[in-house]
Amino acid sequence: MKITAVKTFLCNCFRTNWVFVKIETDSGVHGWGEATLEYKENTVAAAIHELEYYLIGADPDNIEKFRHDCYRDAYWRGGPVLMSALAGVEMALWDIKGKALNVPVYQLLGGKVRESVPIYVNGWFAPAKTPEEFAEKAVAVRDAKFSGCKWDPFGKAWQRLGKHELDNAMECIRMVSNTVGHDVNLLIEGHGRFDIPTAVKIGQRLEEFDIFWFEEPLPPDDLNGLREVKERVRVPLAAGERLYNRYEYRQFFDLNCTDYIQPDISHAGGIMEMRFLGAEAEARHIGFCPHNPSGPVANAASLQLAACIPNFVVLEMMMTDVPWRSDICDEELCVLANGEMRIPNRPGLGIDLNEAELLKHPFQPIQLRHYRGDLTNIRPVNAVKYYKMENK
């Protein structure tokens, strides 16, 4: 079997543009990957096509050779663009291998340790701005009996947070907490935007709410600072979505920066790189919680990985998505009555995409919302659920 073509598709999904890669072979078996890189979608698509030198005419079974050679030959190594491109292609190669052998990818990684995975929801709050609006949106989380919900209550702050802004954020958390009750975990997002004294002050205030974690309190390039925050607060920390491979994670692990790691399968080199990170985290008794706010292929690959990682804790998912998600793919997702998502058992990643439908939603330029006041506008008004819910 030889690779004959590499295709990329950019599909608008309101919050960003999904970046999909399709690898075709002379046997008729094809694979899908995802390299969605917000605000750099055209750049990562170009990087994927630059990898054709290593792909066209090659045997798709040799996944590790592809990853090794591409990384070795990249004079400018690492970073989000190269690693996202590698991730998208590597995912598609695993999809091909699973389909060719007629087994789910998790079987190629050692088999399952669980039948379903705990999940928490993101995006449930859109487009809330005030504590009252967040609390109103939280009713749907409570009624659906999701195990956790994540959000950023800090407005458009950068580096510092005034007393009024901090009090308002704490009131938002208090109102959401009162709405969802004790059975729903609270995960507070910082989006990597505070300085050390502000992150510490926030962390100390968060002790009141018994939160599940405080995510990315500092910019992602200050690992020593993150370690200092961890030493000065008594709430669990999570981070790592903007680290891109085992080499970048080495200092993170050595510093023991957080209680949970959050590599993203679309950016951290793909399935096997994530498997290695999970194993290192397991050896250090750190929870493995993949960052997963992107599209259907990244979600499918994350589920395959979560099936076989012993120290896997919880998976992120968006509560709703654009209505055309069900048109572009044939994913079959089911959230069980216990708030977990069932691991699909179809061959490969367990998903296929419709090229004609993808082309109906072309790329649209979208800019970062974090500091302009509309951070929470990440779901369209016609957003819908893209999964089934079992007898809740």
Taken as a percent bin, the fraction of beta residues is 15-25%
Query: Roughly how much helix do the residues carry, as a percent range?
Result: 25-40%
Query: What is the CA-CA span between the terminal residues?
Result: 45 Å
Can you tell me the number of structural domains?
2
Compute the CA-based radius of gyration.
20 Å
Overall mean pLDDT stands at 96
**Which CATH class of the largest domain?**
Alpha Beta
Characterize the largest beta sheet: strand count, sense, and whether it forms a barrel.
6 strands, parallel
What class do helices, strands and sheet pairing give?
Answer: alpha/beta
CATH architecture of the largest domain: Alpha-Beta Barrel
The fourth-level CATH homologous superfamily of the largest domain is Enolase-like C-terminal domain
Helices and strands, in N-to-C order?
Answer: EEEHHHHHEHEHEHEHEHEHEHEHEEHE
Strand runs, count: 14
List low-pLDDT spans.
none
The number of helices is 14
| Widest β-sheet, arrangement of strands | 5-6-7-8-9-10
CATH topology value of the largest domain: TIM Barrel
- What's the shape? globular
